[in-house]
Amino acid sequence: MDHGAGPACVVSSDSLTGYDFGPSHPMAPIRVGLAMELAGELGVVGADLVKIPAVPADDDLIATVHTPDYIAAVKAASDDPTASNLAVGLGTDDNPTFAHMHAASSLIVGASVEAARQVWTGGRLRAINVCGGLHHAMPDRASGFCIYNDVAVAIRWLLDHGAQRVAYVDVDAHHGDGVQKVFYDDPRVLTISLHETPQTLFPGTGLATETGIGDAVGASVNVALPPGTSDAGWLRAYHAVVPAIVREFKPDVLVTQQGCDSHMDDPLTNLMLSVDGQRASYLALRDLADEVCGGRWVAYGGGGYAVTDVVPRSWAHLMAIVGGHEIHPSTPTPPHWRAHVSELKSGGAAPLRMTDGRTPSYRDWREGYDPASWLDRQILSTRNAVFPMYGLDPMP
Description:
This is Acetoin utilization protein AcuC. Helices cover 35% and strands 10% of the residues. The protein is α/β, with parallel strands linked by helices.
């Protein structure tokens, strides 16, 4: 496929940064602003990646995933941010309440559904909402910085509007537990999550043995990566599991969550990827969408807490790939953006280039399994758990 062909869009609005848990919270909205600013200065947003405005989701749309009681609790907490409702996860350190929380969260849901709509019925081949990807929210409670699960609502919208099979791939360092939970018994949705092992990271789920229930056994796939996994190991795991399963599943559309908290500089996780490795993962997902579903790809942001040096560069690369024109890793960061970052860091240095100076490579699974490798044992656990259900051989 010609990756320059086919329209793409980014769903964005300045109001999306209103999803703000406060100045001391790690999920700083400035990360999104800096990513959009960098993408703009690099010429990523324009004719090939058209900017589409975000529209808030109404309560009925949110209720396709979330319970009415929970939506009411979010509204009540928005009206009185001093009150907590710990029974539904509101007012915790992870999910402090704030004014207009329901409105800000509804806008993210609306933006993510609009991205899905643009691909499914709007004539776009690819779409992205970098503010989306709030994959931990459960139907009846908030979790892990996530109030409403925009990804699950968007996938539900796709199913309700004619999609027969949706593949969801989550590359955030944290397990995509909320999306898995919503579709754990739905054979129409394949959820794949590559994440740091629950032995060392929130939310404590995502083992290879979590494969779905009922008719959906085999439709949940989890790769629990050892702490310290870097570009080569991550890419080895991805290529050993994801493409083969997605090919057999034959989805109509690929939905992905690109949390970039897998980076070596992220303060909340223990993976060791570079911006270059993350860029390689985005390219792999684009190629997979091209191969299995005619290029139809809906991408979302997610986690990422190295807010000035990592998130903007990673997501600018992601937006460029969605738009069909890659940014070469050696590209210098624009001087104006660099000055803005330096100011935010009180004179600290800003990244000079769109690279960490790495050239990602990996050893293909077919070249041999190493039983002494924790990574290889985890990969094999996943392959053993789900490959036979697709008629695939777990061993090379």
